[in-house]
Amino acid sequence: MVTAGIDMGAKWVKVVLLRDGEVIARGKALTGFEQKASAAKALADALGQAGLSADAIDRTAATGAGRKDAPGSPIELTEVTAAALGAVQIERSARTVIDVGAEEGRAIKTTDAGKVVDFAVNEKCAAGSGAFTEAMARALETPVEEIGPLSLQSSQAIPMNAQCAVFAESEVVSLLHARTPKADIARAVHDAIANRIVSMARKVGINEHVVLIGGVARNVGFVDAVERELGLKITVPPDPEFVSALGAALHAAERRG
Amino acid sequence: MANVAYPTEPLKCWARAKELRQRYYEDYAKAHDTGGLRWAGGAWSFDAIPMGLGPDVYPLTSEPYAASIAFNREFSKRCLEATEAKGYARDLCSYMRNYWGSLLLNEYAFGGPFPRPDFIWQDHICCSHAKWYQVVRDLEDDIPYYCIDVAVGPYEEARDRQHRVQYIVDQMHQGIEFLERATGRTYDDARLIEAVKNDCRATSAWAEVSALNKTIPAPLDEKTMYALYVLGTLHKASRDVADFYEELRDEVRDRVARGIAAVPNEICRVITDTQPPWGFLKIFRYMEKYGCVSVGSLYTFGLIGAWEDKPNGTWGPRTTPMAAGTPMETRDQALHILADWTLSRPEWQHFYSPHLKSQLMLRIAKEWQLQGVMLHYNRGCEGLSLGIAENRLALIDAGLPVMVFEGNMGDDSEFDEDATKNRIDSFMESLGIKRPGEEL
Amino acid sequence: MTERFAEWYKTRHDYARAWKERTGGKVVGYFCTYVPEEILIAAGVLPVRILGSHEPQSVTEPHIFGMFCPFCRDCLAQGLKGRYDYLDGIMIAQSCLHIRQAFTSWVQHVPVGWSYYLPFPNHVQSRAARPYLVEELRLFKEAVGAWVGRPITDADLDRGIATCNEFRSALRELYESRKAEHPPLNGVEAMLAVVSGQFVDKTEHTTALRQLLDALDGRERRDPKIRLMLVGSEDDDVEFIRMVEACGATVVTDDHCTGTRYFWNNVEPGEDRLGAIADRYLTRPPCPSKDWPTRSRVPHILDLADRWGVQGVVVLQQKFCDPHEADTPAIIAALREKGIPSLFLELDVTVPVGQFKTRTDAFLEMITADDLF
Q1: Residue A250 contacts B where some CB pair is shorter than 8 Å
Q2: Among candidate residues C283, C292, C241, the one with its CA nearest the CA of residue C96
Q3: Largest CB tally within 10 Å, which of B177, B323, C242, C323?
């Protein structure tokens, strides 16, 4: 059986194709303004890789903020359920899943079957999401993919108030004016966002095995800051941004036809 | 479990509730036409006491009034803007900000200019209560103002430490002196005693209505309860409200006897917490698509309801002083009874410790047979959101599924409807409840 | 001479541990300055006010909803992180809802042997408040006596009252000296002198205050440039005050619970000792949460501004502090009416110094420009 999982994220659409529990292809497209077209593109991309046509898909499930716009009237499930299913599939012992995407961060407590026990979501605030790092990278005039490695070169911690992205951005500007090394500012930015994310994660409780997923998990500076704030090592699966799409594909496979 | 369908029917006394509420706001506005008096105060004010001034003394309680404003999102927006323009912080109590806005704009939510009160009769347990009307006097000076501090600790302790009750009674006695001075009227103790009896009748009957919701299927859903409990926040010491609640209680007893449900597809029972986002009550209807019914909350049960432990160990309506045979013949006796009665209010206990509230919520979870709890982290009310994070931890510790949604009872800019629906979806998924329309 | 206070401020926990070691006495952490320290001192207990550490933290989110003030969360963080592990007990006198949560969560999650919730009247302006508070103080005195294993006598109370009075009188004198055209100490020094007094043994602290007072004449006087007053909620943000004073101003007085509100009035000794203590706390310059129906803070603040020759007021409060937010517009309006400009700022666990500096500079420039015309 072939199933598709589509994660209609705020910034990217991610697609995972699954055959009998094995990932056979992935696709990704910028969400942009034409969500439906982007999703179709990501799906076509994945089908192309797998060498399949659309009607080879037995069932599709969609998750993410734009899931209602996913092609092919799929089964719907929320980001929370999808993230837990996907994370536990990759890391069987994961009990706390932290998912940081472009516009939202969430923490999930799960069972070994990927069943959600409790969850917390950061509320209407950029300070706990990928958008925050992007804004700060802009203020630092550094490409967003470089800000993580840059922060690892820092030699000092500078406390930064991360209650508000707008405030934080002007803090970055003040620090630049005060000739603070960029690496230290980059670390302060990551510490600030990690502080927000860990605060939220503590609400659901931190269990030994923490898995970090979502696009922001690719940022090594952020991962380092989260580990320092938690005081423990965390797992970042390969391709962390596809985990929720994988969860959706698994959900589709579990449903009987 | 797929196609459960309980019988349902509308409430017979619904129209009467609507009429009482409408007349309340009209009576207040028109009080001066017939030489009557108007006063402003809180939903928890001891409204029985000004009733000793005569039959033509009409209150406007500020929280339900502000909730009425919030329900009208366009007017609410203008009110909030007017308040902010005056320099008041956006994170203050959103009821207060709506109320001040209505005053500043000089617009009454029910038409016409804002009817200025003749005096203010407030009570104080939340930090914002006394400050609310202090600011009203900044905006409209010269309105005589009296406020009673009721923050004397949990009832369990106050009952055994009479000086705490006495502090309230002393303030009440002094308050009556204030009322006589402020209005030039002579105080009538017989009216006070009658009003205290009404208060006890009304609040005990409301608790019984709430307790009847332990039944499966629930005879009432919380969205309907909001429209009914509000009368107790308007004028719990009036004869009309006491009579109405007794009538309602009889009708709900009958619904229980006949198995009438509020929501025909009830499969999942939850409670909420704190005031809802008044502009978005449709989220309750969204939940109902899943067969998920909110059967109430400590807020709807205990904001005005009077409760006690029953001999069989359950939680039920408090026995009125009339039924208990407690003498109530003098002003002092009536004031003591009123103070003691009110101090047992469930929604006052968490002001001293969130753990007292957690215990009450766990008790409700058990007796009302709940599958989960939805906590509204309400940025609009620091008093009722007090300790809510600890409540969440305690409920989870006890094994109860909990969902949190953030919002604001009176400022719709702080509520995200889509995000909340998404959260409800996640919560339902985690409870294993299927999406509406999906086959099992 | 003021370094001692700065040192105490920085090493408060070491100080308390050493005090315990030295005296074998009990230490009680308290929230809010409505706690009658006289009674704790009478029992030989060291009261230490629990304050925050001004560091970002991620441990309080599960316990306190984010709409409550950063101060109460910072305080609770100290407990959750074990910084106050030497405490024998904690207590609160009922004041605002925000700080109450730091107390109730602490009781639940931080192991401590003894805790006490002192129900304190909010209606301090009512004549009903006194008998109620006197009875609460009696219950409190008995509870403390039972806890330390020795009833508190009248002589103990007299000692507690005298110790606090001497301490408060010395702080009053210190503040008097700031009325001078060229004050002998700056705002940071004054703040540290008051705040350290909230967790150092009062007798020892008074001795240090007396030494400073004796040495004031010999101190280098400072051209205050612009004389400022701070008005608002709890504030021990030393970095912020240092920045303000570095911009070309001197803080000469304040209305804060980490300032004048804490020490302004003394207990008037009398036969009825608990009555005397009650009177002191009922009539002290109030926290806005207890200042009603009359807003007595406004004339008091104007009086301070007048007597200390204040040219500008920085109104600063903990973010989300509702009682202060209900007073602020009235205070700003009253100051404006007296021709005193004000700058409003919100405090968080850490403050964005860069932005606040820009605003402070602009505020001071505005005052200077006013003086030119």
Answers
A1: no
A2: C292
A3: C323
Average pLDDT over residues C245-261: 97
Q: Where are the alpha helices (DSSP H) in C285-352?
A: 297-307, 322-337
Chain B nearest C-alpha distance from C115 (Å)? 13
Q: What's the CA gap between A157 and A164, in Å, rounded?
A: 19
Contact between residue B416 and residue A124 where contact means Cβ atoms under 8 Å apart: yes
Chains that touch B (3 or more CB pairs under 8 A): A, C
Residue A83 lies in a domain: no
Strand order across the beta sheet in which B372-378 lies: B292-297, B268-273, B372-378, B402-407
Q: Any idea where the domains of chain B sit in the sequence?
A: 14-430
Whether A59 and A153 share a structural domain: no
Among A126, A144, A137, A243, CA closest to A193 = A126
Measured distance CA(B300)–CA(B276) in Å, rounded: 10
In a domain, C11, yes or no: yes
Of C123, C122, C329, the C-alpha closest to B137 is C329
| Number of folded domains that form chain A | 2
Cα atoms in the 13 Å half-sphere on the side-chain side of B217: 23
| Distance in angstroms (rounded) separating the CA atoms of residues A213 and A235 | 9
Average pLDDT of B220-239?
Answer: 98
The yes-or-no verdict on residue C4 having pLDDT over 90 is yes
**Structure-block tokens of residue C76:** 């609770």
Pairs from C276-280 (Cβ < 8 Å, separation ≥ 24): C276/C161, C277/C36, C277/C38, C277/C39, C277/C137, C277/C157, C277/C161, C278/C130, C278/C133, C278/C134, C278/C137, C279/C130
Task: Give the mean model confidence (pLDDT) for residues C328-344.
Answer: 96
Chain B CB within 8 Å of residue C142 CB: no
d(C-alpha C117, C-alpha C109), whole Å: 16
Domain with residue A18: its CATH number is 3.30.420.40
Min CA distance, A198 vs chain C (Å)?
6
| DSSP assignment letter at C344 | E
User: Which tokens in the block code for residue B363?
Assistant: 């008790």
Q: What is the rounded distance in angstroms from the CA atom of residue C321 to the CA atom of residue C319?
A: 6
Confirm whether A86 is domain-assigned. Answer: no
CATH number at residue C140: 3.40.50.11890
Q: How far is CA A157 from CA A6, A186, B186, C21, in A?
A: 39, 10, 70, 34
Question: Residue A223 belongs to what domain range?
Answer: 92-236
ipTM topping 0.90:
yes
C169: in domain: no
Number of domains in chain C: 1
- pLDDT score recorded for residue A123: 65
d(CA C41, CA C202): 9
Q: Does any CB of chain B come closer than 8 Å to the CB of residue C284? A: no
Q: Which of A126-130, A132-136, B380-384, C252-256 has the lowest mean pLDDT?
A: A126-130
**Looking at the structure, do residues A102 and A225 belong to the same domain, yes or no?**
yes
User: pLDDT tens digits for B60-91?
Assistant: 999 999 999 999 999 999 999 999 999 999 99
Token pair belonging to A71: 């092609």
**Of A191, A203, A229, Cβ closest to residue C62:** A203
CB atoms near residue B350 (< 10 Å): 26
pLDDT value at position C203? 98
Mapped onto helix, strand or coil, the DSSP state of residue C232 is strand
Q: Do C123 and B128 touch (CB under 8 A)?
A: no
Rounded to whole angstroms, the Cα distance separating B345 from B340 reads 9
* pTM score, whole prediction: 0.95
Same domain, A48 and A72: yes
Provide CB contacts within 8 A for B56, sequence distance 6+.
Answer: B31, B34, B35, B36, B37
Residues 6+ apart with CB under 8 A from B138: C329, C330
